[in-house]
Description:
The structure holds 2 protein chains of 2 kinds. Chain A is an all-alpha fold. Chain A has helices spanning 6-13, 20-29, 31-49, 59-67, 85-109, 117-148, 156-178, 182-200, 207-220, 222-236, 239-247. In chain A, helix 5 (85-109) crosses helix 11 and helix 8 (182-200) packs across helix 10. Chain A is flat and about 65 Å long. Chain B has 11 helices and no strands. In chain B, helix 2 crosses helix 3 (24-46), helix 3 crosses helix 5 and helix 10 crosses helix 11 (172-194). Classes of the chains: A mainly alpha, B mainly alpha.
Amino acid sequence: xxxxxxxxxxxxxxxxxxxxxxxxxxxxxxxxxxxxxxxxxxxxxxxxxxxxxxxxxxxxxxxxxxxxxxxxxxxxxxxxxxxxxxxxxxxxxxxxxxxxxxxxxxxxxxxxxxxxxxxxxxxxxxxxxxxxxxxxxxxxxxxxxxxxxxxxxxxxxxxxxxxxxxxxxxxxxxxxxxxxxxxxxxxxxxxxxxxxxxxxxxxxxxxxxxxxxxxxxxxxxxxxxxxxxxxxxxxxxxxxxxxxxxxxx
Amino acid sequence: xxxxxxxxxxxxxxxxxxxxxxxxxxxxxxxxxxxxxxxxxxxxxxxxxxxxxxxxxxxxxxxxxxxxxxxxxxxxxxxxxxxxxxxxxxxxxxxxxxxxxxxxxxxxxxxxxxxxxxxxxxxxxxxxxxxxxxxxxxxxxxxxxxxxxxxxxxxxxxxxxxxxxxxxxxxxxxxxxxxxxxxxxxxxxxxxxxxxxx
Lengths: 249, 198
């Protein structure tokens, strides 16, 4: 058996390696792997020893005492069925977003990236922004993870994630263009180019290549633009639309 | 009130059912039961005591708002932990945005954006070698929010990779990757101090 990889050592440590028996036998016979395994085990024991501030037995009661006065009033379930134009407008808006997402996913997965003007028109700019807010959040996390990852790590998972984001991004950009949201469309276009570069690039990055991506992200100020656009979306989206949209999380 | 007493004998499922039906005392009992575990998770996620307290409050407020959507066949504790993870991630990201706004000129994406302030020193913290602790806290602060969340759940909460994927709304491969990166970064950060404790 060849030496255990970094991933195998970590999975073995957590008891999640499928070929556990073979790995343990190898570990018993191989000084180099055993030493690597021990190094990880010791480091992880240090992490586990980092203490958490103690909370006493009555901590739960304290939390409840603080929480109770700020709990929002709850409505009986049947009041949801009563006519309420604002609520139903928000539900309708969310339905448009969901429909948009479902159609988009199907289209792009099937490789049928065709335009969808009727849905775009139905969605409207505020609904678009509510949906874009979540997409931007995911994109930002993906870029940060990539920029701060390790050079020796296999990037295939990140690339798959970038591919998923590209499909959604393309749709949102098209809808933004049709809705006349030029600023939103411009940022999404820039983000799309970067995601494409990541998705279609090599699946392993050297330190220099990763540094180049990091520099590119910094040069384009894409994280700043994403955050600015996210703030804009948050300030423009009607609270009802967001609240309902968050229920879907 | 009679109903509130009943759930104490009947158990958590009944408490949740009563809370869903509008019994705030039953919800209070659930808060009391799960607060310490949520605090521990939140502290490990945020690395800061005050932030962890904020996460506890936000978690139970969110749970209260979404209570009717909770399905009784699931575990209330797991559900609340999931909400706490999301609240922690939101807070960490908000801190990053705040840091970036404060220092736009220095905002190299990465290191500075991802640092999380450490909590106040406690006697236990002082007991761990100062150098080692410093390295460890720095390493934890360098993890991306997703790496930190996945690592805390795998290493400190004992969740499986699959469970972590479900908690974070990611594929298992992505969750696994986050754990690998976190372990790698932490191990490398601690390496210079490891010879003294082996």
